[in-house]
Design a protein that fits this description.
67 residues; alpha+beta; 1 helix; 13% helix; elongated
């Protein structure tokens, strides 16, 4: 019998006006998005645009400057 390969998540995620500043330079500036329960998203962008910073804030590793 085969098991399921996918994970399920029951929670949604809403980010509003997220800003993160490092040494006077903005890594994120007023970022916002909503991810519905069960929705899958992908973050795309060039190096240095804030993808990792956003993921670190969502996971609780970093605290946003505002938002």
């Amino acid at each position: 019998m085969r098991g399921r390969a996918a994970a399920t998540f029951a929670a949604s995620l809403t980010l509003q006006d997220i800003t993160k500043v490092y040494d006077g330079k903005s890594a994120l500036d007023g970022f916002g998005m909503t991810v519905a329960a069960g929705e899958i998203i992908c973050l795309l962008g060039p190096s240095g645009c804030g993808k990792t910073t956003l993921l670190r804030i969502i996971s609780g590793i970093e605290r946003p400057t505002t938002g």
